[in-house]
Design brief:
Elements (H helix, E strand, L loop, with lengths): L12 H11 L17 H5 L5 H19 L2
């Protein structure tokens, strides 16, 4: 029975445990990736504005761009 799982490690100690399990032939590590600790900017600010505030901001930005382009 072969199952493939994608996991996210929340503690660096888990890497060592996974390698030990691999040495015992319990699992096979297919790929190791280094993920940036810095979150994406869109994830950082997602949900910060309500829908109404977002619409007001978008309208204001469009107005400012129109004013800038008319100069």
């Amino acid at each position: 029975m072969i199952n493939t799982m994608l996991i996210q490690l929340t503690n660096q100690k888990a890497v060592g445990l996974l390698h030990e399990m691999e040495e015992l032939h319990l699992i096979k590590v297919l790929k190791e990736t280094a993920v940036s600790a810095k979150p994406k900017l869109s994830d950082t600010y997602k949900g910060m504005l309500s829908k109404e505030e977002g619409e007001k901001l978008t309208k204001h930005i469009k107005q400012m761009r129109n004013e800038w382009n008319s100069i």
